[in-house]
Amino acid sequence: MKKPFIVLGIYEVHNASACLMIDGKIIAASHEERFSKIKNDVGMPIKAAKFCMSYANIKPKDIDKVVLSNDSFNKNGVANILLKRPALYSIDDWIIENKKYWKNKLLHNKKNPQHYFDIMQGKKKLRSISHYYDLKNFSFNVSDKKFIQEFNEIRKKTVSKYLGIKKDKIEFLEHFICHHYHAYYSSPYRGKKVVVAHLEGDGGKFNNAVSIPTKRGLKILAGSKTADIGRLYQWVTLILGMRPYHDEYKVMGLAPYATNKEVLKSLKVFQNLFKLTKNKMAITYKAKPKDLYFTISEMLKGNRFDGIAGALQITLEQIVIKWLSSVQKKTKRKILCYGGGVAMNVKANGKLNQINGFKNIFVPISPSDETNAIGACYYATEQHFLRNNLNPDKIKPLISPYLGPELDDKDLLKKIKKFKKGKKIKLINNFKNNQVINYLMKGKVIGRASGRAEFGQRALGNRSIIANPLIKGIEDKINFKIKYRDFWMPFCPTILKEKSHQIIINRKNNLCEFMTTSFDVKKDISDKLNAGIHHGDKTMRPQILDKKTNKDFYQLIEVLYKKTKVPIILNTSLNLHRKPMATDLDDIFDILKNSDLDGMIINNKFLIIERDEK
Ligand SMILES: [Fe+2]
């Protein structure tokens, strides 16, 4: 029998992750944060990689290749990793770094005597920030070339030391390439009809690019390094008093509440920043400001916060639609696979349906950087197929998002015993869906932790909080019980695929199994819903659930549908504020202890907590 081709993909920066693929099929994938419990954790994801290998029962010697996203990191990149900047920086840290480092460099064109790593007390911080990298002889005081070589060597040594994989199996891959391979190969589309595009904050060689599939692999047609609309979004998030790398979705959620008058004021600031490149295949600056924090902040002085959010969102939507319309006209392709961090903007993704030339638009699961581990695996597998005269069109799309650890409930009774002191609780073994749904019909809010955890930033049913979105006041109740979300942020729903036409307007019949696109909602339904919809613009970002992908969850929603006649359930992530999504039983009981949830599905058991209604 032919030996299967086994590849481990690794991504080390924002929301570091690992993925294990065998002959083009993803066997396991997860994020370091799910094990370290640091939200959006940064650094070599050894725990996630070990999980992938152990889940697939793969020994280090069985692995053919390890592919690390990012062919190199310069001094800024390494400082970003070592400080775990995207995960740990507070709003104050971002502002201090801007004032003490970037202001000099970008506004005043002055050379800083110290790198921001030193200014932000990197050495001292490293005593409390743990990393797997061996940094004993590592210094920032070497030439840029030597620095890059040395850190890449450290990366290889780290993989080799902790995962036991020989250094000669380890390769590096350009960052933006990972986005293209994830967007294309995780889609069900193959061949000449497809064009692939990505847009993000910082992608190395390109932060937006266009590629097409060819017989020799994806071919990059065009790209730019100055498509900084994603970066602008990050800095405006900070200007609005929220955390870059975390809270951009809040700016997007705020946008629809702005009045035209307020939007117009801020549009004057944003609208002349970007244009298309000469070949009309990428985005670049029309007028580049000296920096995107101080300069933009000054220009927005006196403008209302919601108007700023509204104008920024419109600017993003307009330039992305302009760019992708042009890409469609130039390439004449009918199917778009679209990834990169900016593709996390579900609202803009929904607007792409205005581009008539595309018959279908596919946004892959969690298209920001955490899926670079998946993209790296697809790249290595495609190259293997090509070397062996196999058809890469046969590489399987990503169908199931449930790629993380199984929920091990063997200690459940022990945990319940500890938890139940002073509480009225009931455990139903082998529960019937009706028992859960009757509970939800009374306005109860419960968790669902079942089977393998989902990959990506969205709860897709296996680590979710669920409720009946038709119940009046249900949003406030969830916020009160657990979520402490900002008052303007909507909740998302899961809808049954076969019935989705009753709920949303999906003219292109786009796939949306991973909550990656927003849709307009039918008026009669939006009038009924008290949650699961954006109250400002009446759009929805649903998980359209296929029965084949998650039968148990589907059947549970079917029972709710029978009672409410609306095929929809509210679905938000099972986590405490600023913590990663729950993975194991410890996380689940941590949530139960620190929230007022009314119950929890734990695999085939239903734990009911009878609380006094406040
Ligand atoms: Fe990226």
Which characteristics define this entry?
alpha/beta, Nucleotidyltransferase, domain 5, DHBP synthase, eight-stranded mixed sheet, binds fe (ii) ion
Written overview of the protein:
By secondary structure, the protein is an alpha/beta fold. The protein has three domains: 6-87 and 117-176 and 375-394, ATPase, nucleotide binding domain (Nucleotidyltransferase, domain 5, 2-Layer Sandwich), CATH 3.30.420; 187-363, ATPase, nucleotide binding domain (Nucleotidyltransferase, domain 5), CATH 3.30.420; 412-610, Alpha-Beta Complex (DHBP synthase), CATH 3.90.870. 36% of the residues lie in helices and 18% in strands. It contains 22 helices and 23 strands. The strands form five sheets. Strands 13-23-22-14-15-21-16-20 form an eight-stranded mixed beta sheet. Strand 6 and strand 7 (208-214) form a beta hairpin. Helix 10 runs antiparallel to helix 14 (305-331). The radius of gyration is 24 Å and the shape is globular. The model has no long low-confidence stretch (mean pLDDT 95). Bound molecules: fe (ii) ion. Residues 175, 179, 200, 203, 340-341, 369 line the site of fe (ii) ion.
